[in-house]
Design a protein that fits this description.
Layout: H1 2-14, E1 34-40, E2 48-53, E3 64-65, E4 67-68, E5 78-84, E6 88-93, E7 99-100, E8 108-110, E9 114-119, E10 122-128, E11 143-146, E12 149-152, E13 156-157, E14 163-164, E15 170-172, E16 179-181, E17 237-245, E18 251-260, E19 266-270, E20 280-284, E21 293-297, E22 302-304, H2 311-314, E23 331-336, H3 341-354, E24 358-360, E25 368-369, H4 399-411, E26 415-421, E27 424-427, E28 435-436, E29 444-445, E30 449-450, H5 502-507, E31 513-515, H6 521-537, E32 541-545, H7 552-565, E33 575-579, H8 586-591, H9 601-609, H10 614-619, E34 620-623, E35 633-636, E36 643-646, H11 668-671, H12 674-686, E37 700-705, H13 765-774, H14 783-786
Parallel strand pairs: 1-9, 23-24, 23-37, 24-26, 26-32, 32-33, 33-34, 34-36, 36-37
Antiparallel strand pairs: 1-5, 2-3, 2-6, 4-5, 6-7, 6-8, 9-10, 11-12, 13-14, 15-16, 17-18, 18-20, 19-21, 21-22, 25-30, 27-31, 28-29
Bound molecules: 2-acetamido-2-deoxy-beta-D-glucopyranose (2 copies).
One 2-acetamido-2-deoxy-beta-D-glucopyranose (NAG) is lined by residues 370-372, 446-449, 731.
InterPro entries: Alpha_amylase, CBM25, EGF_extracell, GH, GH13_cat_dom, Growth_fac_rcpt_cys_sf, Ig-like_fold
Keywords: Carbohydrate metabolism, Disulfide bond, Glycosidase, Hydrolase, Signal
EC number: 3.2.1.1
Length: 792
Amino acid sequence: MKQLNLLIFIFLLLTFFNSQVEGSVRDPKPGPGVVTIYYSTDFSPTTYIHYSVNGGDWTTLPGKQMDPSTNKSMPLPYHQKSITGNTLTFVFDDGKGNWDHNQGGGNYVVGQPGIYSVKNHVLKTIYLYPKKCPGNPTCSNHGTCNNGNCVCKAGYYTEDCSKYCDPYTHIICDDGKTCVSGKTCPIQPLPGCQTYHDGKCSGDTIVMPPSFKARRWQTPTKGSSGHRDSFQDYSHLVGWNHVVYSSDHQSATLEVKATHKNGASLMYSFNGGSKTSSNTKQFTSSFTDALTVTVYGSDGTKLVLPEYDFMWNTHTAIQHASGDYRDGQKGAIVSLFGWPDGDIEKECEMLGQAGYLGVKLFPHQESLASIEPMNNILNPWYFYYQPVSYQQNGRHGTRAQLRQLIATCRSHNVRIYSDTVLNHMTGSGNDMQKHRNDAGSCVYWPGKNSTGGDNMSPFFTQGFTYIPNENTELPPSQEYPGVPYGPLDFHCERALNSWTDPLDLNAGWLVGLVDINTERDNVQERMADYLTDLIGLGFSGFRIDAAKHIKPDDLISIFTKFKRNMGGNIPKDFITWWEVLLGGEKDLLMCNTNSGYNFGKYIENGLDSNGFSTDDINKIKIWWSSFPNAPSPCGGVISRVRQVIENDDHDQQFGGSSRDMHGQGVILVKDRDVSGHRYFEKKLFSNPEGVSDNNNDWPIRLLLSSYYFPNNDAQLGAGIPDGKSDCSNCKVQCNTCKNVAKTSAYQPNKCGYTGPVYTRTHRDKEIVTAMRGWMGLDTGLSNSELGIPEGC
Ligand SMILES: *[C@@H]1O[C@H](CO)[C@@H](O)[C@H](O)[C@H]1NC(C)=O
Ligand SMILES: *[C@@H]1O[C@H](CO)[C@@H](O)[C@H](O)[C@H]1NC(C)=O
């Protein structure tokens, strides 16, 4: 205070001298040995800093002129000045006798090199650099100065030797900054904003380097801080059930495939029975429970596998009194986009009455979930397609709820189909670890969770990580212990840039999603077992998401193993349809059998030589993206029995919808044209574009019921009105969250297009009637006989 008054006095005497002799000497760069001050002033565009460095003389009044800040994070009115030194005492003025002093009225004082800011008379420390010698020639009295660096005496540490670490009870870690009791130093993150950048492909290699095997077993161990009950002993023990049915599907052999990190010997218990050393057990249709398998390691580790269902319990009879269902090989399947399990279960009575073949669910496996918005939306729908495991704890329900849904729907003669993601797991960086972005901004974000909630599986990717794993002490790598997949089960990291290069299509990381190495036999086995589990749960078939990004040979192998698991006898009513968007690559992907990456005749030939009958091959279909604008892109290269058609589809349910149907179809949420939409959905059944034999062409046809974008905001279309995108569940960065309020999907008194929010096109009387006509069902039934409200 006193010094300030004196300064003002002197300043007034000298005010007519413009003593500014700044010259063109450049400021030192912010860094060790430098004090950098950012000063926010509104009182004058011209600002001076008057200071004493290292306790030396003060600058000549009014001090040194400050420069406008060049730091984008500290924009104008911030000004900056960097001064070499260890300590700085300073005040600001405008060169005209107006002073900015410290809150208490005195000088500002900093005692260490670093980055500081001053705003509204408050000095804040942004970053501290260590006090290096020679500015600290005695090294805080605990060391000697050697070429600008302190060499500390025993027991002292940090770059300026200012701290003591008792050598009898503690150790100083290699970073020179940490003193810990005991003998284990904490794992050190990368310095600055750096992140790991390994695991990338070099040249045409698509596999991970074999050394990445050492990066497996990343799950926190029991008792460590990141562990959760649902992580079990995944740090040491993982596994799954491999089931092969007899050809009549009335008995099965179950083999537990478990792996222990250290090769401990294992014992097995089936449904709580006594422990046995055999990992294999026979079951017959007299076993009517859901099965629980427990694995015990000789080192005390334990693994409880998710419940397992056998198909003899779940594929209850379906008996249609009339209609051309062909044992499940013909009919209309409704995609109920964003519907929770309980709502679908209730809707199934109506769906059965109306005569639908079935419902296609959205991915029900455990998938990504977060308390932080992604592109302003909490849990956008595309999180469905980022699997965390093949456990059925999905966004819309648990395995138990799913089992219940399937049983109820089948009791109404409605089959259930899965949406199955085999190509990839979550996006790189979408996992449970801490992350940051090294692209200049150094933004940090927390790990994500899964839809599993209390049953969440751990999951790890390499993207945006900067802390070595606690167990491996190596950089993180891809691992999904709940499946289980380890680092070598993935392709090395490669951007998917080319849509014409088979290597890129197969092994590229589609929009950064970690790409599974489907060439590996153990991966193909795991996938076939997953498909077998879905059949055991009662599914009648499955859509295969992103099939175009799985090598055709690999899909042939996976389905051949699946057929083996089915006792060589694929169920009569089974169907699958693969998502292979033809786009501009129809020659490569479909028309040219010998293209080297072909999902047309090449797949048929491959299945045929692996013993698939024509009937079986006809059950394996392609989602026909050329419909409706170019229904026959390369003539009859594959039979229309193997093509699944749809008008509006779920991939268009966001603002950037790109499917151009050339006026031959309508995307309801985008075009908002109810009569046009109804027209094309009716046409899908009565007279689809390009049809020649409506009775036999395209026996499987899909209908989409979805939801409108709330408030007409297309961005909100990425959220689902199921409550999981409701901002009341947001915990991080919630100021960016755009709300998608919860609405009930099941509303028995609503029609196809009357909302609220959800669309229920499968309830539209005209569409139902067109579908029934195609299916050879009575078209003269009343609304109540069809299960839909009067007036719909
Ligand atoms: C720029 O400003 C940010 C935000 O205050 C700070 O963290 C960073 O250290 C500054 N950079 C430099 C080089 O001063
Ligand atoms: C994940 O779940 C844990 C436990 O429920 C919770 O504390 C954490 O905030 C969640 N994090 C995210 C990003 O969802």
